[in-house]
Amino acid sequence: MDLIWSSGDAAPSTGLSDDDVRDAYPWPGSTSARRWVRAMMVTTLDGAAAGPDGLSGSISSSVDKAVFHAVRRLADAVLVGAGTVRAEGYGPIRAAAADVTARAEAGLAPAPVLAIVSGSLDLDFTGGLFTESTLRPIVITGAAPDPDRAALAHEHCDLVATSEPRPSAASILAILEDRGLRRVVCEGGPTLLESLVAEGLLDEADITVSPTFAGTGSTPRTSGLESVAGFELAHVLTADSFLMCRYVRAAAG
Questions:
Q1: 106 within 8 A of 112, measured Cβ to Cβ
Q2: I need a surface site. Which of 35, 143, 188, 224 has the fewest CB within 10 A?
Q3: At 8, phi and psi to the nearest 5?
Q4: Each residue's pLDDT tens digit in the chain (253 positions)?
Q5: In terms of Cα–Cα distance, which of 98, 115, 110 is closest to 134?
Q6: Beta 138-141 vs 113-117: how paired, if at all?
Q7: Do residues 142 and 164 touch, judged by C-beta distance below 8 A?
Q8: Rounded distance between C-alpha atoms, residue 2 and residue 54, angstroms
């Protein structure tokens, strides 16, 4: 994997190790109280977020996954919508032995905590995601969840109901921050990502451009933003014809 461009660099670096990739996606310092929210996604040349099978894995690659795991390595929380959890078949999030020291030095828990946003609570609470993750997952729902589903959820996760019919991005992040979870990786879906952008709460977008065409019909539709939100390119990594682009919101620095 090669670093072919980085703002402020006089010359590109080459042959990046796993730790180099991790360092190319920095978080605020361990003593910083600042929240930082970054989104991770892959897109094809025709703008699809998944392949014909409906899965992002079919348009991804080992180099894209290396960035995906590098960003997770020092995160506090992985934030994701329930639809994405179901579609992608999320498994448990466990502590990685190789990262124990680095996470401890950064004042982090042994592993990121999974935070799922779900209105219906239509989740498999007996699956490995809930029973085998290192840390107990958090599920954030609206003001009036189904009582039976809520009772089941309480047995397997930390269920938090907001005062809103549908949790806003601000309330979701406030719930995480109240738990000291300030380094947040949002992995989708599109509605959750759109709400973060619309409310001006997304600091960084880590976008992989896959050298494939999948048909734009495989891209989920959302309601759309009232106006575009601009980001600045910080670097581009390339390997196997994939482009891994890191963008930072201008106001975020």
A1: no
A2: 224
A3: 90, -10
A4: 665 555 555 434 446 788 888 888 999 875 567 899 999 999 999 988 888 888 888 999 888 888 999 999 999 999 999 999 999 999 999 988 888 888 998 899 999 999 999 999 999 999 999 999 999 999 999 999 999 999 999 999 999 999 999 999 999 999 999 999 999 999 989 999 999 999 999 999 999 999 999 886 544 556 677 778 889 999 999 888 899 999 999 765 5
A5: 110
A6: parallel
A7: yes
A8: 29
* b/e burial code for range 66-84 (CB count within 10 A of at least 16 → b): bbbebbbbbbbbbbbbbbb
Q: β-pairing, 204-209 with 242-249?
A: antiparallel
Q: Which of 208, 186, 218 is nearest to 199 (CA)?
A: 186
Per-residue H/E/C for 206-225? EEEECCCCCCHHHCCCCCCC
Beta bridge partners of 81: 117
**Based on the number of CB atoms within 10 Å of its own CB, is 15 exposed (0-12), middle (13-18) or buried (19 or more)?**
exposed
Q: Closest Cα to residue 63, out of 253, 214, 239, 245?
A: 239
Q: Which two tokens stand for residue 39?
A: 């989104």
Helix (H) or strand (E) holding 184: strand 183-186
Q: Is 226 exposed, middle or buried (0-12, 13-18, 19+ CB in 10 A)?
A: exposed
In angstroms, rounded to a whole number, what is the distance separating the alpha carbons of residues 249 and 145? 34
Q: What are phi and psi of 57, to 5 degrees?
A: -60, -30
The answer to whether 235 and 19 are in contact (CB under 8 A) is: no
